[in-house]
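Field reference: sequence -> structure
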Amino acid sequence: MSWIRRRPLTALAALALALRVACAVATEIKPIFPAYYYTDAVVIHGYALSALEDVRAGRPPAINGTLGERLQTSISLGFYRVLGPRPFVVKLFNAVMGALAVAAFAWAMTFAFPARAALGAGLAMAVWPSHVFYTSQNLKEAPVALMAFAALGAALAAGFNAKTSRARAASFALGAGLALLAAGFYRSYVLVCLGAAILAAVGLEAAHHPRTNSLLAAVAILAALAVHPSASRGLLASFHTRESSAAGQGRAQPRMIPVAYSADSLEVHRPTSPEGISRFRNSRQAADRLWAATKADREIGTQIYPGASFKTWLDVLFYLPKGAFTVLFMPLPGLYPMDGKIGRWAAAGENSALLLIALLAAAGFARGSKAPARIGLFAFFAMMTAGAALLEFDLGSAGRHKLLYLPMLFPFAAEEALRLFRGKEPV
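Structure field:
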């Protein structure tokens, strides 16, 4: 066991990988949940199959969908071209990315928390059932988490480690900017929120301890934010697409699912007023219900406050705590109907543990240091939670998306737990 003490991040990644590979194998043999849990993975598989048909017919592969879907489809297509259409191989690849994301997260936390608290936070993420499940399927969760946490860790390594040389700090800063840009290609709001949080942390650090390294990290993040719009358009245009009128010629035609909290949708609808937010929410929820009824012959039972109406910004402000609690912790036993569904019972048990972690984190944040890096982590959590409270429409998507920002509470909770159990500051 001594190697674990010498290489704790490697051991953590190995544990995370073993759990995710086991889940990938289990879900390949027998799906754990109903088919709609795997809808997005089926969509990506369908796009990849259609593109593979093009390749085999000697045509340029046509890949439709959002930029994130096209990137994920390209990964699948790359494997399919070599190994044939085997989704299990892609699931294993995502499991590797998910395990690396766990290690990147724990590494990033070491720049803001004592080592034991950072590793405890990483361990919580490694064994988090939802994280294990969603990062072992062909979904965007694994690559987004890996890029986001790599960007966070590299930015903190560049701007918050006094022992880092100028050249090394510049390398970390460049890596942070590139990783953040890559995360933004999948989900642009992640780039905006994480970039803003890092800039806030770096700015506070520079005000207290002026260092050129902090400036390097800030410049890299600002560059990623500035370059992203044009880079995204250029990358999107680089894909060969198929006109919708040509669809249906015997090729797989997966649907375009409405994705909650989608930056692309925000750019189209611009919900910048209380009434606009209401219209946006209601139209998206109505579209989801219509698709579920006509295409999947089912009703959606987990929409988040359908019909919610905001007339003033005060209405929005009063809604935020209720919306935030719902997207973070629902369903909970006794507060949400279980209807005998295994998925809801599993989520309720998990959310009970997450609520306890959040309470520990609140105590830890209140009692602990208010160092700039820690404030930055909490700011990322707060911004993402506020956005999710307003723009998540279904508990299913909310449960997936919170895998990225709820872990910001884990190191605060781990630090507080160590303090309570040991009666002293964690080391």
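Note: Residues 200 and 426 are 26 Å apart (CA to CA).
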